[in-house]
Each structure stands twice: as C-alpha cells, then as structure tokens.
Amino acid sequence: MSVLLVVRRIVDWVVIVAMTLLITFRLGMLGNAYGPPWVSPFEKWKEVTWCLLWIFVPLYIIRLAFKTRLWAGYFCFLGVPLAAYIPSSIYFLPHWKESPFSSGVMAAGFIVLGLYWLLTSAFGSPPILAPSAQPSRLRRWAFISGGGLACGLGLIWTVFIALTPQFADCFVIPPSAKPKFSNQAVFIATDEVSFGKKPALDDPMPFFTGFAIARVQEHFWGLPWWCQKFVLLWRPAQWRGETYFYDGGHPYGLLTQFLPIVVFESCSRTRLISDAEIDLRILKEGPSQTTGRIFGRAYRPNEVDPWQRRAGIKVTIAGTSGNIVTATDEQGFFDAPGLTPGDYSVQVDTQPLSYAHCSSPIKVAPGQFIECDFEVE
Question: Is 132 exposed, middle or buried (0-12, 13-18, 19+ CB in 10 A)?
C-alpha cells in the first residue's frame, strides 16, 4: 500500500469525522432553538424543516461518500445555500445580514468539502467503502451506527448549551407565590451526583464547575410532567451536597422543553434552603389580595462570614398601618405581613451600616412582597 493511498484514506476519514461533528453541532443548536413568539405556527415549522434539512443533507452526503464521491461532491454544492441561510444561532428566522460571518464559514465549509469529493473522484479514487470490500448489510449498520453516534453527541451538546448559566445585570426580584414567567421552574433539590469540586473559601471564582443531577424534594412548578423527581442543573459549586431552593428557567427549545433541565439565572431567588425561609413561607401561605408584606434579614459582616445573621434586632415599620414593631428571629429574618397599601419606612433600633433592596418611602401595593435587608455592627 503506497504512502499516497494511506494519506488519502486518512484524509477521507478526517472529512467524515468533520462532517459528523458538524451534524452534532447543528443538532445541539437545533435542540435549543426557539422561534420568536409572534411568528405563526406555519412559519415556525417551516424554519424547523430548514433546520432539519441542515442535519439530514450532511448525513446523506456521508452516506453517498461511502458509495460514490462524485454525487457526494454534487450534494455538497447543493447544500451551500442551505448552510448560508442557517447560521450558528439558536434562534429561528436567521438572515444573512444577522450573521454574515457564521453563514460564510458554513457555506465555505460545504464548498471545500464538495471540491474534495469531486477532485478525489476525478483522480479515480474509489468510494470510502468499496462494494466489494464490505457486505451491504455491514455498510448499512455502519451508517446507522454513525448516525446514532452523531445523534448521541448532539444530545450531549444540546444539554451542554442548555445548561450554560445566564449572567446579567441584577435587579431585585421579590419572592412569588405563582409563576412570574411561562418557563420558570421552582423546586427544592439535593445533589445526587455532582460534577466539579467544591471550591475553597478563598476561591476568587466559586460559582463555576457546578453541574449536578439533583433529586427534587418538593416541586412547586415548571418541571416537565414526566420527570419531576430528578433534574439536571447548574448551581454554585460551593453548594455541592447541600439542599437548596431553586428558582430557574426551564429551556423551551425544540428538544430541551421536554428534558428535565433547569438553567441557572444569576438574578433569581435561588439560594440555600437555610436562606429561603421567606420564599417557602410565601409559597405555602400564598399572596394576599388586599394587603402587602415587607420582610428582610439583618446581617453582621465579619472576616469569617460576611453574611452572619443577627437575631433579636428590633425593627419598626412605620406607615399607613401605624407603627408595627417586630424583631429578627434566630435566622436573622423579620416579617411584617398584612400591611395596608401605602407608604412605609423601615427603622432599626441599632444604627445600620447600610440598607439593601429598599429605600424610604417604600410603596406597598396589594399582594406585593418587598424585601429590605440591612447590615448592622
């Protein structure tokens, strides 16, 4: 066997693997794809069809390459417009102007592959699997196995994309007794299988490498109906092995909407169960239709624990309902439910270092929950 023949065979299989990875990549993007809410079902599924073609055309090209290089090259050139029309995006209705670079890269990839198959055919190279070399049944099973492998890798890529945490500029999110958005998922969970090590206290980036398969202890809403006992999620790595209250987003991609996956969002009520007393209390008691509620925690920062709770701090809530006097409990919480709608202020018997999440006057509306935390010496 000549060196040139060995090199050609190696390149053949490198090209096949590259096309399989392209299919895997596109499967992952398709699994997370979702259309704009204003498009009609016809427009949405028309775009789904185009996305599916992006997968099936490369898959068919691989099948042709096992039999005839010439037709594999022709189909690569036929797939150029398809590759250019659908860039690497998780959104439907993509256009050239929205992503010219990714569209150009995809189209160029198909052109290069087409030229390779046509040139090797012109020089008389045989199919990758010559008919006499392998039985037809074996070739068929090789093709099916390769397609199954691509689909399996595509599913893994789909899950990886879906689990990518979403970080954004945060704003105060009050607790809620009902879903705040259509794909919100709220539950209590404990790790069963954790990925990544628990970081040290002085780790400057403790919120990464926090994937887990968690057992759901109590489900409030948002998980798929067929799997509400276990969930795959991303959570802060320092929570490994802990029980936590999770407030995340369930993906609504074509595939991910059916999977027990929850996406971490930095601006959410997600926290350790020991810090979620108010959230659980509101979920179980429900909102009032006529009154509001002010609640919060008292902290005393120190070198060991910057969020150490302070119990027994006297808190006065003054406003429309008069002066309501309460105190923080053992967990540092105070809670003032049943407030008549109007303006209020929160005063502490010791000089607070700072207030968080609130500033006077606090406007309370019916059914509203307002969080007011403060630090004390």
Answer: exposed
